From TrEMBL:
SUPFAM superfamilies: P-loop containing nucleoside triphosphate hydrolases
Keywords: ATP-binding, Nucleotide-binding, Transport
Domain ABC transporter, chain residue ranges per copy: 8-244
UniProt name for this protein: Metal ABC transporter ATP-binding protein
Source superkingdom: Bacteria
Family: Belongs to the ABC transporter superfamily.
PROSITE patterns reported in the protein's UniProt record: ABC_TRANSPORTER_1, ABC_TRANSPORTER_2
Signal peptide stretch: none
Organism: Sulfurimonas lithotrophica
Length: 254
């Protein structure tokens, strides 16, 4: 693999809805094995940016390349694990067990109608182990709590052995101990398995030491290549508003 080829390459992206600019003139690159956090105020455009990167929204102007290809040319979607913000909202009547859901993470790599190999099964069990949901294996997913469902969706993404893991505020409704375990897991996936992580979060203070770069999104995107320095940068405070100061203080309170 050409390590200089960005996984995502965005050039002068503009996106508006009904004449309202949601994202303006965004250019950024995301490279292999980077751990990137995306922060910004509510409604700033973080989820929209991810949806545009994945081709789930149509940009009005500009260019997005994924592994050097346009969205229609790109076929290796199994390389990208995406856990959307609302992944924890599952219909209570949804007829699948936790195991069924995590197994879906293997379907993209299998030939249609082929059965799971031993290796597939091991990867499914490993992903469940990592997310600490083995004890929930036979439960119907609709009966779980929001935090448990979120872990199931992340396990499904991990089972597909993604090169890139995109997480949209995955810790909503999760207790602090589980959150810390989860941050350690992300650190490990990035450091040991070299998985590229793109993480939308409001919890930047806790992961500031782990991340390589920070994108602050509020219609515009500011990239900070030294996240710890960025936490005090005026430009970011301006873009993010009062929360930048809170984050900064939180970090320095430790
Ligand atoms: N397809 C769409 N149609 C209408 N409005 C949209 C669409 N996509 C995004 N928006 C608007 O764009 C703005 C940015 O939304 P987005 O969900 O990306 O923000 P966010 O930064 O992820 O917010 P949060 O932190 O609350 O999750 C919002 O005002 C949203 O209503």
């Amino acid at each position: 693999m050409n390590f200089k080829l960005p996984i995502f390459d965005v050039e002068n992206l503009n996106f508006n809805v009904g004449g309202v600019n949601i994202l303006s003139n965004v250019s950024l690159q995301i490279f292999n094995s980077q751990y990137i956090a995306i922060i910004g105020p509510n409604g700033g455009g973080k989820t929209t940016l991810i949806r545009l990167l994945l081709g789930l929204e149509r940009l009005n102007s500009g260019k997005i390349k994924i592994y050097g290809k346009t969205h229609s040319e790109f076929k290796e979607w199994y390389k990208i694990g995406y856990v959307p913000q609302r992944a924890s909202h599952v219909d209570i009547n949804f007829p699948a067990t936790v195991l069924d859901i995590v197994k879906m993470g293997r379907t993209a790599q299998r030939k249609i109608f082929s059965t799971m190999s031993k290796e597939d099964e091991t990867l499914v069990l490993d992903a469940m182990e990592q997310m600490d949901i083995m004890h929930l294996k036979d439960k119907m997913v609709g009966t779980l709590s929001g935090g448990q469902r979120q872990r199931v969706m992340i396990a499904r993404a991990l089972a597909s052995q993604p090169e890139v893991l995109i997480l949209d505020e995955p810790n909503t409704g999760v207790d602090v101990a589980s959150q810390n375990r989860f941050y350690s897991l992300l650190r490990k996936l990035n450091k040991e398995k070299k998985i590229t992580i793109i993480f939308i979060t409001h919890d930047i203070g806790v992961i500031a030491d782990d991340i390589a770069r920070l994108f602050t999104v509020n219609q515009k995107v500011i990239t900070c290549n030294n996240p710890k320095q960025a936490l005090s940068c005026d430009e970011m405070s301006e873009l993010y508003g009062i929360e930048a100061h809170l984050i900064h203080n939180h970090k320095h309170g430790h």
